[in-house]
Prior knowledge:
14 strands
Amino acid sequence: MTTWFAPRSLEPHLSAMMFDELVEHLRHRPDLTDVQVTDRDHMILCFRKAGMSADGPVLTLNARAMACSAERVQMPCAQRLAQIDRFLASILPQAQAALDLSQLYPVVRHRDRIVDLESPLVRPLAGDMITVVMQDLGDSLATITACELGGKSVEDLWQAAGINLRRALGQFDATPEAPGYLTIRWPDNPVLSGSILLASGILAALVRQQGWRVAGIGAAARGTIRLADSGDDEAMALMQADLAQDLAGAQPQSELIFRLSADTPWLEPWQKWTGAGFSPLPIQRRH
């Protein structure tokens, strides 16, 4: 049984030296055992929780997700490892817990942020974005492998994740930035803000409410969705500029802008999301 854990606040840019520091640090932790590097090129390692049986779960860590911003890359080794220790403190108590369907959500990520794109719990959304079923552990998100299903079908997990998202979609903030341009955030659960892209019916209703025919949507940074009237050149230019800044930030996501028409139907949570209603446009990067 293997879990791919992904810290919410940490992402790729880990150097080889930092990776070696991490491996050595984990090998000296008394609560871990069998720490092994399974893929040095992709900086993936695995370990077991100390005291567990030999057939207990193997925890697999994608160490490419250990630092994303320049600040984290440059922070002292001890400070960086302390971050990782806090992350492990949040996941280790879950190591023997049965999979809880109420903790599952469909999470939107850039395809490069997920190691196992062939997993049945990963599906394409549109362009460079994918949807992955993840487990919300409170302070972290964990992806799930097929061997953890415990008799549940893959469709059971997709359906549970979609239903949980639909129940959780309460009030999100749609803040006007300029005429024809909105920023959308989900303050109650910022880590899932990108999942609003899956609620295309809700977004389409917002487009109709604004009196737009077609909207451009950008998700260039986690926690923020940008929405502009595609028929308003000034609004689209403002959004393009903000998206370029988002891409240069600490948690970049999609490099594309998507179209969404006002009549796009709601995608039911148990349907296979394929990005219907979206078509990619490139963001104009600032040089």
